[in-house]
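Researcher: Please translate sequence to structure tokens.
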Amino acid sequence: MRITPAQKQKHAVNNSEFRLAVGAMLLPTFHLAALLLLFVSAGRCADAAAGGDGGRFVYNGFRAANLTLDGAATVTPNGLLMLTNGTIQMKGQAFHPSPLPFRDPKAPNATAARSFSTTFVFAIFGQYTDLSSHGLAFFVAADRAVLSTALPGQFLGLLNNTNDGNRSAHVFAVEFDTLFNADFHDLNSNHVGVDVDSLESRVAADAGYYDDATGLFRNLSLISRKAMQVWVDYDGAATQVTVTMAPIGLARPKKPLLQTTVDLSDVVQDAAYVGFTSATGVLFSRHFVLGWSFGLDGPAPALNISVLPALPPAGPKPRSKVLVIVLPIASATLVFAVGIAIYALVRRRIKYAELREDWEIAFGPHRFSYKDLFHATKGFSDKQLLGAGGFGSVYKGVLRKSNTETEVAVKKVSHESKQGMKEFITEVASMGRLRHRNLVQLIGYCRRKGELLLVYDYMPNGSLDKYLYDRSKGGLDWPQRFRIIRGVASGLLYLHEDWEQVVIHRDVKASNVLLDAEMNGRLGDFGLARLYDHGADAHTTHVVGTMGYLAPELGHTGKATPATDVFAFGAFLLEVTCGRRPIEQDEHGNRTVLVDWVTGRWRRGLIIDAADTMTPDGFNPDEVSLVLKLGLLCSHPLPNARPTIRQVMQYLDGDMVLPDLSLEHFGFTVMEQMYSREFDKNMTMPCVSSTSMGTVSDISGGR
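Model: Translation complete:
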């Protein structure tokens, strides 16, 4: 009769037990006690290897391991945990069957995640040693439901297209990304990364380790089909993650590969699952884990490297990459091409979605695609942000077309209301035809969801107000200030009288005057401007602009006219010359109106004393006196008493003599009265303190 291997094993065990029992009866009593202790100790070790006490375990191979397996994951006869088996577009998951207590209710900070340590040995067998699909990851996940809905491919069997990047995922992972091709640099991704609720790593590094002897970095190929060991430690007190790796058999390097701050208290709940996940794409790979240990509140138990299961033979490298690659790619394309294409198309359209209406066809040359602006500003990155406030945010961008690069400034403002949008876009397109050396060129626009994006020429030296109030940038000398004043006046003259239509800027102020490379002043930000034909009457509109620059009649008529721009220009003249804001408020809440302050000095014959004392190299008293008096004249509360912008230019150029100012003409305190209370109820703006100098605007309605 043939004896099966199982019967042989049982027979051997029975014989061993019999011999052990007989031997025990022959041993002295103290030998028998020692033997019993040895059995108890061995039993405890076996229990630890089988899963531990819930917070500490070690698996030196997985032949009898109590793990939950999902997807393609399986345990080979010799004890290897094989997460993927060489099938394309497949995921495999293996994790400790029960969640571990990641929070200690008895700890002083019961909401903090507990420290943990884990070490494991893995190997990845791709089709080639220089080409692979996707990798594997060690994870800590609060909810198994997230793992069950995870996708293969680039999602690593960890997340999906819906929860990738969503904080509700509650997943922490250390990924080993192997989408790698040594011949095509745009595919290189042989790295280790730390992920939190996203497959975009918070921090990443090339796979490898630091040699203790030399301190040099040694690269490791994750798809070399060779085993390598990883150590992951989380310090709950310091909220710090450390990742170290090395070839198997090498002692743990002293210098870690990665170290970063991650507070897992925001990720894990009271309990969480720990384990591994991997995935394949259009190329197949096999992902193996040889051994794994884990410990809460202390170091993970050491792995016994000598008893880990052996990896399968690496085998010869296939002779034809093309045949092996093309066939799975072709088959995968037939199965998944339609789904992937639709998904990619929908995602792309959502990412670059714009708001377009039929009436905008006529403005095609002035319309930018959101995709171009997105790439020009590097995704509207914070690093590209030039400024932000109540008016919106402005980003620096570089538009690339036909091997040329154009620097632009892209301003994002809200347009929640559709009312008046067609008229507004019409005006934007019209103002795109404005051409003057002292105007910032408005190039075009784009509409997206609740945003309007305006595209301007980029001015490298930023806005004038920074040089007036931020002394770290260095002060402006008087010739520079006078040239800027004259330049802005010239630009306003073009808008009011020399262009084909009358353009009312409606927000003339220092922060809207930008400086080009030669420090020439250019009036910008036409987001509030409006136009009408020469000889026509201005229409009533919502009051928009900035406190301190608004003409008094706006509160009663609601009509923006060239005279209201001249009033704002008067405040601008005083601001640039005095280096003070039109309205200032001290720590006691007392407000000072600049025009009244300058008027007081003029009455006492000390108008020159109002000039900015921080002006380098002094100033020209005659020019300063002229500009200050002209600022008062432009700031007159009665619009008919103000000069036109052409007369302003003639005064600045010396072609006309500024009329003498009289106490009867300038004995007014209406400005002080106007800014000491709220505007008329017909005005749509709130009172704004001089410290914030808020801008009030409604770009979409009542234009």
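Researcher: Any highlights?
Model: The chain has a mean pLDDT of 79.
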